[in-house]
Prior knowledge:
The chain is mainly α. The protein has one domain (25-419): Amino acid/polyamine transporter I (Up-down Bundle). It has helices spanning 2-23, 26-34, 37-50, 55-80, 84-92, 94-124, 130-144, 150-162, 166-173, 178-186, 198-209, 212-225, 232-258, 272-283, 285-318, 332-349, 356-382, 385-388, 395-419. Helix 4 packs across helix 17, helix 5 runs antiparallel to helix 6 (94-124) and helix 11 crosses helix 19. The protein is globular, with a radius of gyration of 21 Å. The protein starts with a helix and ends with a helix. Residues 9-22 have low confidence and may be disordered.
Amino acid sequence: MGRHKLREERRSVRGTLFLVLGMLGPGLIAALADNDAGGVISYAVTGAKFGIGLFIPLTLLMALITYTVQEMAMRLGVVAKYGYNTLVKQKYGKGWMVYQLLSLAAENFITLMTEFIGMSAGLVILGLPMWAAVLIGMGLVLSIALFRGYAAKEKIAVGIGCLNIVFIVIACMTKPDWGAVAGAFAAWSVPAGEQGSVLWYIIALVGNAIAPWMIFYQNSAYLHKGSRKADLKKGRTDTVIGCVLQVVIAVFIILIGAALFGCVPHIENAGPSELIGALQEKFGFVPAMLFGIGLFDAGLLAAVTVSLSSSWSIAEAFGWSKSLDDTIAKAPKFYGVYFGSVIAAAGVVMVPGLPLNHLAVLVQVISGVLMTPILVFLTLLTSRRDVMGEYRNTLFQKIKAWAVVAVLGGVSVLSFATLL
């Protein structure tokens, strides 16, 4: 009787696990890809520069903002059955669509550069030369597009995203002071002498939480996945799991950086190799190697999703075939954008002397600035009865969305103020 009950419990656990895994898809991919190579470097630099204090509580709060935005992107794709760009053009004019498309293309290209910076740094620690590391990263990103069908590409991306868990392992290996972590929630503080630069990193934190490509990717992915209105609950579950995991992993990356607090002079001007080197010097080769692998994994997932968001958006704007179920022969322009952007970004990264860490933080700031108008139109579209019908934003959802717009608008103003 006891064995029978145990078998039933195991089947129940397996059934629940398969049910949860079946719900995971674009929401998880978009959120975990937000912890891209640039984001990982930015979080680690933030921890190394400011320690545990202020940024861990702020990072966890970002899940509320991320979910608000990503849920609207998901719901728009599932209900409206049109892509974001098409709806902006239909409802608000071609000019706004062109502006958002150009903004996305520019931001995505800079983001792709940071992905290759991170991926190459992750392989260099294993002894590969820079050029070989970049070529390997580029080859893997391009090869994923060759898998047949959307479902296969999604499963590969989910698998890559789950490897983010390596950052939790590394953080535990650095033996963080959990009492200090708990204390950070009771008394937020900034290290003496760093008050002047903290604003820049807060702006970068918000920019990293919600990047423009996330909206385009998740909206297009759910649309091309063929999700229906009956799948909205699964979509929300997928999205909330992704948003929670994203900030939790980001906190552990900050803890890794905090373990290097004071170890790397002028950390914002160093490269990811300096971060890995400092980690190796203080904690040994294994944590440094794992960080390099995690950085490569983060860059790989983000490079795929960022490139797809560009390809989907540009193909949609020009009316090209854009289904991941199509072969390269059936959608040559769609895949051409994908391959071209990846190859170009990898080529630029080979230029010597780039301020790598500063670029990684800068791209998060740019994301925050470009995000505001995109989010305004996303909120307007998901609030329209003629687009969403009964699934349009409720009053509470409108309040949340416009509050996020206000936060991003404030971040944009602060960004310009710090640059003047």
